Every structure is written in structure tokens, then in C-alpha cells.
């Protein structure tokens, strides 16, 4: 399976943030820039790269943030992507309050991970990834008395064992020191 150097592309994105040439405000900015990097650096074909789309193996109304795969028109009324890789993205930006961040975090737990599991069960050769971009750093805090990343990883292990989690996070609010971690 080709991983399209996804960790490297996230590292490239972080480098652009550190240089000040990329300043994401919302999730769509991170998704759009990753799309750009997958085309320009990882050489993914534009014909195979899709945003906010339906995939084979997901529920009828599930939409996935970034999908690499071919279009299937078996059902001409409802074409879908036959995925090789699916990436769900969540952003914890500066300027959101704790409640907004908690809602995004719980979307990962309650929506994204189950969605990724459904896809990997129905299409086991598909790489499924959750990308967390944290500039606060919100994920360093606690959720149900446990570190948020640790809790998320324990839930991933229960809900979506095949999912990889990539975390791009600032070490603290003031420093421009970032880490990219693959779990």
C-alpha cells in the first residue's frame, strides 16, 4: 500500500506554518493545503484526489475529508470513490474556546473513528487516517481524567484498530516548536 508520504506532507505543512507562509484559520485551510501538497509533492494524480466525498464502504450520507482513489460509476445515479486512502481531518485552532474544541474532539471519537472503521471493515486494503492539527495545544489537556491524545488512542484501539492517527501539534501556545507524531 502506498502511504503517499503522508507524514512527510504533514511535516511540510508544519514547516510552511513555521515560516509564516501558511496560516490556517479553519479545517478547510488544512484540508486544502494538504490537497496541494499531495498533488505537488507526493505526485498524487488530480484524477484520484477527492475532497468531501462519498466512498464505497461508508454509509450513504457519510462524507470524507480527503480520499485517494478511483471513481466508480457502477451506480450511475450515485457515483462513489473506491478508496485506497481516506483521511479525516480535525483542527484545533487558536481563537476557538474550550467548548468548541471539545465538540471537535468528540466528533473524532463519535463520528470519525467509527466512520474509518466501517470503511476498513468493508474495504480492508484501504489506509484510514485521522489527522489532528493542534495549534493551541488543546490535545495536551485532559478528557475524562486522561490525556486527550492517550484517550483518543485508547478509543482508536477499541473502535478503529486499523486507523493511523497523525498529530501535528505545537508544544505550547507561544513557542513555534511543532511535533508531528504518527500513532
Condensed summary:
The protein has helices at residues 6-19, 27-40, 98-122, 148-159, and strands at residues 49-53, 64-72, 80-92, 127-134, 142-143, 146-147, 164-170, 178-182.
Write the layout of secondary structure elements.
Layout: H1 6-19, H2 27-40, E1 49-53, E2 64-72, E3 80-92, H3 98-122, E4 127-134, E5 142-143, E6 146-147, H4 148-159, E7 164-170, E8 178-182
Query: What Rg is obtained from the alpha carbons, in whole angstroms?
Result: 16 Å
- Alpha carbon gap, first and last residue: 17 Å
Helix tally?
4
Secondary-structure element string: HHEEEHEEEHEE
Q: Spatial order of the strands in the main sheet?
A: 1-2-3-4-7-8
Structural class: alpha/beta
| Residues in β-strands, percent | 25-35%
Uncertain spans: none
Shape from CA axes? globular
Helical content class: 25-40%
Features:
alpha/beta; two-stranded antiparallel ribbon; globular
Describe this structure in words.
The protein starts with 5 loop residues before the first helix and ends with a strand. Helix 1 crosses helix 2 (27-40). With 183 residues, it is an alpha/beta fold. The strands form 2 sheets. A 6-stranded mixed sheet has the order 1-2-3-4-7-8, with helices on both faces. The longest helix is centred in the middle third of the chain and has 25 residues, at 98-122. It is globular and about 50 Å long. Helices cover 36% and strands 28% of the residues.
